[in-house]
Specification:
- By secondary structure, the protein is of the alpha+beta class.
- About 35% of the residues lie in helices and about 20% in strands.
- It has helices at about 10-30, 65-75, 110-125, 135-145, 155-165, 170-185, 240-250, and strands spanning about 35, 40, 55, 60, 80-85, 100-105, 135, 190-200, 205-210, 215-225, 225-230.
- Strand 10 and strand 11 form a beta hairpin.
- Helix 4 crosses helix 6 (about 170-185) and helix 5 (about 155-165) packs across helix 6 (about 170-185).
């Protein structure tokens, strides 16, 4: 007989319903509008590290609602959020499924520091209060691998990445991305915000000049070694967006 029972327990279904209610109530109180955008679209994303599913009709299942929601914002929408399915090829394992549910939101006038505060508020409502630690990518990789991610050469980055098990290093960004993921799993803290990513990890975030380095104005929240959330101070310079997308599409 073909197994027909769902793998999700009743307990998990009830907990999921509770969490969805908490999220919607959280944003309702902040006057953030819930929206629903297309899951199937004519195009995928330009992010080279994320693979989209392409249908027989030539359409793409969306890897996140990011671009669809940004179209709404560009057309004059207020702060918005969405809870929806997303699809990514090649992401399957203990912590990943090719299909998953994502919460995405955009806040008018917020910078990354304000977003960190808001993410903290929401996570505490769902999981309960807890102390948070903060570290930069530079601190993280220097501690774990004795690597200056902002200043060391591409050759040095590739060498360290290979030493940690990445056989085929295709570029600096590839090596840095692997080392960050590797180091995050070793963090001893329950909840950690990681900030000041190198510029080759900026994606669609703004960059900012600090004392010694130019860094991406973005963050990730890691809980027990797993990336749970990431946030950007969104890039709004159309020329720079075009430049980055042209590079991604090469």
């Amino acid at each position: 007989m073909i197994p027909w029972r769902p793998s999700c327990s009743l307990e998990n279904l009830l907990e999921r319903g509770r969490v969805l209610g908490v999220i919607r109530d959280f944003f309702r109180k902040k006057n953030v509008l819930e929206v629903q955008t297309s899951i199937l679209a004519h195009y995928g994303v330009t992010e080279p590290t994320i693979a989209s599913f392409k249908t027989n009709s030539g359409h793409y299942l969306q890897t996140s609602p990011e671009f669809q929601m940004k179209r709404l914002m560009a057309a004059g929408a207020p702060s918005i959020y969405q809870i929806c399915p997303a699809f990514r090829q090649g992401e399957e394992g203990r912590s990943h499924n090719p299909e998953f549910v994502i919460l995405e939101w955009y806040r008018l006038g917020f910078d990354s520091r304000q977003l960190i505060v808001e993410v903290t508020e929401l996570v505490d409502l769902i999981l309960g209060g807890c102390d948070y630690q903060y570290c930069t990518v530079g601190q993280l990789l220097e501690t774990e691998f004795d690597l200056d991610v902002y200043g060391d050469s591409d050759l040095r980055v590739a060498e360290v990445a290979r030493d940690q098990g990445l056989d085929n290093v295709t570029g600096r960004s590839d090596g840095v991305d692997f080392l960050i993921a590797n180091a995050l799993q070793r963090l001893p803290f329950e909840r950690v915000f990681v900030t000041e990513f190198p510029v080759d990890q900026a994606a669609l975030a703004k960059t900012q000049q600090l004392e010694k380095n130019v860094v991406a104005d973005r963050f990730e929240l890691v809980i027990k070694g797993v990336e749970i959330a990431n946030g950007y101070h969104e890039l709004t310079d159309a020329d720079e967006l075009q430049r980055r997308m042209d590079i991604d599409n090469r």
